[in-house]
Structures are given as C-alpha cells and as structure tokens.
Design a protein that fits this description.
This protein is an alpha+beta fold. It is built from 18 helices and twelve strands. Strands 8-9-12-11-10 form a five-stranded antiparallel β-sheet. A hairpin with a 2-residue loop joins strand 10 and strand 11.
C-alpha cells in the first residue's frame, strides 16, 4: 500500500487580504466591541461589589445554620468566610481589575472620536465613574443588603471560581497586605465581628418602634439584660418583711404561720433571725402533722438552705440554686447578720415583672401621667424605668425609701415632702420608721432642666 501525499496549506497574501476585507475593522466595529466589553465589566463590577456586602453582612451563626440545612451554596459560603482576609483580597483584586480595565477601554473609545487626549480622559473618567457608581456600586450593594442570605448563596461558587482564576494576584496581594499590616502594627487577619450587648439592646428598641416587638416583650428583654448586673441585695425580701418560725415551735404553729402569712415555705431560726438553720414548706408540715408517726418535731422536716453574701451576682446565684435545688436562700451582710431572704420567685420576678398574689398591692399606682404612688421598698431603678427619670442609684441605698432617707438625712414622717431636680416625693404612709408608700411627681421643672442640660452640652461641644 502506498502512502498518501501530504499537501502543504499555503495562504497567499492575496487570500489573507480577502479575509481582512471580509471582516473590516472600522471605528464602528471597535466602538461596538468596546461597548460590549464595558457592559460585561460593569456586570462584573456589580458582582464583586455585591459579593462584598453579602458575604460580610452574613452572620457566622446564620452560615452554620444554612450548612446544617444543606442549602445549596452554603458549603462554599462557609469555606469563603473561613478566611475573611483572603475573601476580601479576592473581591478587591477582582473589582479593581474590572474597573481599571473599564476605564482604559472607555478612554480608548472616546479617543477615537475626540482629538484632544485630555478631553478624552476627562470624558471617560466622568462617564465611567457615573456608570460604576450607579450600576457597579449603588444598585448591586442595595440589592445585596436587602437579599443578603439568598444572594450570598447564589454568588458563592462563582466567587470561589474567581479566586482560582485570580489566584496568583490574590496570593501576592494577600501576602503583601499581611506584611504591611504587620509592619504598621495592624492586625494581619480580619477579626470576626460579634454583636455587642448595647447593639442588641438598640435592636430591641428599634424592633419595638417598628412594631416587631411588643412593649411587654421589650421590657422583659431589658430586664434579662439587667439581670446579670443585679446583686442579691437588690432582689431579696428585706429582713423586716421576713416571716419565720423558731426551731422549738410545734408543727401546728409552723402550719399556722405559713397559712397566716400566705407563704408556701418559711425559714426556721434558732435564737434569732441571725441564726437561720433551714427552711420548712407547708407540704412537709402537713405530711408530718397528719401522716407522720406520732407527734413529729419541727426539726425533722427542716431542709437545709444556703447563706449567700448580699453582693452575690443574681445570675450566678440562680444557677447555684438550680444546681442545689434550693427554693429559698438567706442573704447575709459582711458581718454575717441576716439581711433578708431570697426565693426563686424573687428571681423570676426580676425577669417577668411583679407576680402579685391575693390582696398584695401593686408596686406602682398611677394618679396621672406624671404622678404615681410607689411602695417604699421598690428599687430605685424600677422607679426610674417606669417614670422615665434619672434619680441617682447609689451604693448607700437600693430602694425609694432608702433614697428618701439618704436625701433627708433622718427619719421622715407622713406628709413630708422632698424635691430632687424637679422630682417631688411626698411621704404618704409610714409604719413606725418604715416608709410604706410615697407619691412621686415629675414636675415641669424636671423637663426644663433636661432642656437646659442639653443646651449646655451643645454649647460645650461648640
């Protein structure tokens, strides 16, 4: 069998000229091609700009949730956000490349129709800037803000592909950026931003204004945030209001004390209240009285309790009470004397608000918008919250009665009145030395004082 001859393909200059004439390169062809390139580059600019907003606005806990749900693109999002510094460099490199290329093409296109180079640069600069701001920055970023989650899932894989395409540049600038940050003392990596407590509280207030959160829900959430700053002394039932039974009392006497005080459990003391040995509850007392063998002693049903300092943090104490299954603890001062008692109900009330039983009086009784009758044992911070005022909260006192005594410097009587920066407090009811009820009135002078302080602050700033 013979081999087939190999023929060389030779294109003559005449034939090449014919191909060129078939597709003539004119100014119009260049302009159309350049315009198409600019449109593509603007789309890429919008892609990178929106990617930055979507990726860095998406919280890490939401990414974890999306991965758990198995959402398409969630794994790619998690991989990109695992190295936020590399992600930011990728976006910036891509965005700057397309914007610079767009500006160069625009300058060349304008130069075809404008003879002056300076004029061509000026026209292309303003033109491309306008296009980039509108279609490459503003519109894409606005869309990404409104659709953060869905857009991040959609662009994660293309963005990952962009990282591979631009890998040499990304690696180079990633290294150089970290090096510059190290030299200048900046951080070499982007820290994950966490929402602060103040930001959460601001979001709660915004939610209430927007109608997303009800006022009662907002108040409960505010109390939860205050709870970790609360100490046992602020929550406890003070010693004067404590109902207790002596250790040598009979079962019947203890039952009668619980029923008369309308308490489920009461502390048991030996000698005096400074020596509380435990707690008894009505259920154990009734069981011992009617189902016990013979006549049981009170000591047989006494349950142990905790003695905690008055400065004990409330949330730590709540956790301790849950672990030890204590329903009531004794609060003592620095000298070891009993300051009061604290129950789980007191803890719950700090979060959900006052829980009234039977004929128990309301802590606040509004007379009008600016006047309210307040029980003396109410904490001063609650008075400030309800009336939206700022009475001082000092270490010397915790309650409204304590504030009055601190201001007066002595015992007060019914009918007396004190005033603090436009807030009038009239003593309505006194039991021996205790202030039981006071009338708090916020006068116009208080609001005028706020206005003067604001003006003074503004002048100081100026």
């Amino acid at each position: 069998m013979g081999l087939s001859p190999v023929h060389a393909l030779v294109v003559s200059p005449a034939q090449l000229g014919g191909l060129t004439n078939a597709v003539p390169i004119t100014d119009t062809t260049v302009a159309i091609g350049g315009a198409i390139a600019i449109v593509i580059l603007i789309a890429l600019s919008g892609f990178f700009s929106s990617s930055e907003i979507a990726m860095f606005s998406l919280a890490s806990h939401r990414v974890d949730h999306l991965v758990e749900q198995g959402r398409r693109g969630a794994e790619a999002v998690a991989e990109l956000k695992s190295d936020p510094h590399r992600l930011l460099v990728t976006i910036l490199v891509g965005n700057n490349l397309v914007n610079i290329a767009m500006s160069s093409i625009a300058t060349a296109l304008v130069g075809i129709y404008v003879d002056s180079a300076g004029t061509a640069v000026l026209i292309s600069t303003f033109g491309i800037t306008s296009l980039v701001l509108l279609f490459g920055e503003s519109a894409p970023k606005s869309y990404a803000v409104e659709n953060t989650e869905s857009w991040a899932l959609r662009i994660a894989r293309p963005l990952k592909f962009s990282e591979y395409v631009l890998l040499p540049l990304v690696v180079t600038f990633d290294y150089l950026t970290r090096l510059v940050n190290k030299v200048t003392g900046g951080r070499s990596a982007i820290e994950t931003s966490y929402v602060t407590r103040d930001e959460i509280q601001n979001m709660i207030q915004t939610g209430e204004r927007e109608g997303v959160i009800e006022e009662e829900e907002r108040e409960m959430l505010d109390r939860i945030f205050r709870f970790n700053k609360t100490i046992a002394k602020e929550v406890m039932t003070p010693r004067l209001d404590v109902t207790a039974v002596p250790k040598d009392a009979s079962i019947d006497e203890a039952i009668e004390t619980c029923v008369q005080a309308d308490h489920e459990r009461v502390p048991v003391y030996e000698g005096n209240l400074d020596n509380i040995i435990g707690v008894v509850n009505i259920r154990d007392l009734v069981r011992a009285r009617y189902y016990g063998e013979g006549e049981s002693a009170l000591a047989s049903v006494v349950q142990p309790t905790l003695h905690v300092p008055e400065s004990k943090n409330a949330d730590e104490l709540l956790e301790e009470m849950q672990e030890t299954r204590m329903q009531m603890v004794v609060v003592i001062d620095e000298f070891g004397t009993t300051e009061g008692i604290l129950t789980l109900e007191d803890m719950v009330e700090e979060i959900v608000g006052e829980i009234l039983e039977g004929d128990e009086e309301e802590p606040f009784e509004f007379v009008d918008d600016n006047t309210v009758l307040v029980r003396g044992e109410v904490n001063i911070d609650e008075v400030n919250e309800v009336l939206e005022i700022e009475l001082p909260e000092g270490q010397e006192f915790e309650t409204l009665a304590g504030f009055v005594f601190n201001m007066a410097g002595r015992l007060v009587e019914e009918g007396e009145e004190i005033e603090y920066e436009g807030v009038k407090i009239r003593i309505e009811e006194v039991d021996n030395t205790r202030i039981m009820r006071a009338r708090v009135t916020v006068t116009d002078a208080y609001f005028e004082g706020d206005g003067e302080e604001s003006e003074a602050g503004a002048e100081a700033e100026n």
